[in-house]
């Protein structure tokens, strides 16, 4: 049974994991070993962020709503029961606001009769155990087999039994403590800068990743750190503010097709863990900068590689080594890396028959278009079972 369910900002999940061990130990001491804690995968959510704003009267703490990545934290198990009695709520008559008097135990709201959620069916301060009405600040609602009893705080121990009542109250108090802890983590705290993760449109992210990879090649995070260059994900974030002017209908159609392919790959019977993760992220309209964006860029690279592989599976070597070459080729994909002499790019082309051509140069070519290539055949190579005709000293003109 789900007792507590809270969406926590992904930036604060570390605080949850730090407290998790102490929560589990405390649950064990209270005899609540059946409680289980689960942290779900990141997903786009909206949270309240507290920030200090400079005004004419000094600093003021204000609340704004921000969209960022969050994780669902769930506490499941059976609610505390003693002799079948379950504590549904505490009634606090010291609260001046009527709607705030009922302090519901986590997981018990649906068991409380509607009458108790307003003024209550019984006179204020009435205890159904001793059948007396007097000035009482706290009363408890107890439930067993569909029956609800309103019992005064002082009568609970007599009603259930002294030791049993204390155990029930301690266990219920622990659930309220858990709820309170998670509730405080729901907000993004005030800080010197924005302590939340930016979210981007999945469709725009896929389109920009495809554009970046076809123009600059795919660069993973690890490779970017090693070469001190910009990864594909970082490049996507950099050009995201200008997505409205960069993207067009053709690019968005390509993005829609890639999204469908990612979903299909994730649902396949022998789908890899990566394919499942990518399919999970495209199931939302937005993706987080730190949780998911890199995965989608990798998925786009996989799609481009699979499409190129389909065209070059029947590739054959063309011409003779040392001969001149001239022809119209389509640029399929690009790889780029930094060297001591500047960026080096490796372009992979194909002709109408699916034959593969490779050219390494420092020159920059726009992706996803055809070029009139004239140069010299340097060698005949083979990469991953695909025959490649390697070109050198080439000139390229867009067709």
Key structural traits:
399 residues, OB fold (Dihydrolipoamide Acetyltransferase, E2P)
Question: What does this molecule look like?
Answer:
This protein is of the alpha+beta class and 399 residues long. Among the domains are: 82 residues, no CATH class; 112 residues, no CATH class; 75 residues, Nucleic acid-binding proteins (OB fold (Dihydrolipoamide Acetyltransferase, E2P)), CATH 2.40.50.140. 32% of the residues lie in helices and 35% in strands. The chain has ten helices and 18 strands. The strands form five sheets. Strands 5, 6, 7, 10 and 11 form a five-stranded antiparallel beta sheet that branches. α1 runs antiparallel to α3 and α8 packs across α9. It is elongated, with a radius of gyration of 32 Å. The model has no long low-confidence stretch (mean pLDDT 85).
Ends apart, CA distance between termini: 64 Å
Strand-pairing-aware structural class = alpha+beta
Number of strands: 18
Query: H/E order of the elements?
Result: EHEEEEEEEEEEHHEHHHHHHEHEEEEE
Strand content: 25-35%
Unreliable stretches (pLDDT < 50, length at least 5) are none
Cα-atom radius of gyration: 32 Å
* Mean pLDDT over the residues: 85
**Percentage of helical residues?**
25-40%
The rough form would be described as elongated
Assembly of the depicted chains: single chain
